[in-house]
Amino acid sequence: MGEYPKLMMLQTCPFCWKVRSLLENLKIDFHEDQLNPLRRKKSLKFAGDWGKVPIWRESETDFIIDSTPIMIFLDEKYNSSKLYDTNSDRQAEWLKWVDEKLAKATIPILYGSLGSALSSTRTVSKLEKFGFFSRHLYAWTGFPIMWGIIAKTRVKKDGRKPKKLWHDLLDEFLLQFDGKPYFGGDKPDIVDFAAFGIVRSISPFRQFREIESHDSGIKWYNSILSTLN
Questions:
Q1: What whole-number distance in Å separates Cα of residue 201 and Cα of residue 13?
Q2: Nearest residue to 128 (alpha-carbon basis) of 11, 7, 23
Q3: 219: which residues sit within 8 A by CB, 6+ positions away?
């Protein structure tokens, strides 16, 4: 059944990038189990009704679902809970913010127009583990149009262009640093790695340049990136 521990994932899933960034920071050896997106539910039957990635598997029967619980587990088991304080309301609040605000903003920036949707789905088709025919089906037929319509509706409802939305979110996040280089103070904490992972999930796409134009945001991003190398 493969090597353990393993991260069941999709290459372009922002929540998977949250976990992967922490795994890299903690230098944890693990196996990447990249799924075929069109066969995801079949591959994840063992997890019951969850049906999503990421899933962290310590063994055949021992697994954890959902990105934030996985990150907290990894920090506890492999890092003596140095990054996450269970009594910190601030960390809990902003981990929720990362999922509810930052992660949801990935859809408008990648698929907010038909042109960006076409570009993004072609990138996804190259990065993900599709079969030959399903790769071309995903990249060129109904998926770009579907995503373009969904994301365009979100952009219209919000009233901000994707670049403006992302710059506003980064401003909101950076305000929490209180003059320090990271949310966690002088060193990144679990919230930093969670937010970084979401931003990092956009880096393979051409739209990442819209985030790179946020000077203080990209400075924080590159600072964390440098700690992983």
A1: 7
A2: 11
A3: none
Residue 126 has pLDDT above 90, yes or no: no
State pTM to two decimals: 0.90
Structure tokens at 158: 């919000």
Looking at the chain, the whole-number percentage of residues with pLDDT higher than 90 is 66
At 135, give phi and psi (nearest 5°). -60, -50
What is the CA angle 157-170-190, rounded to 5? 115
For residue 169, the surrounding DSSP H or E stretch is helix 162-174
Secondary structure percentages of the chain, helix, strand, coil, to 5: 65, 5, 30
CATH 3.40.30.10 occupies which residues in the chain? 7-79
Class of domain 89-228: mainly alpha
**Annotation: CATH topology of 7-79:** Glutaredoxin (3.40.30)
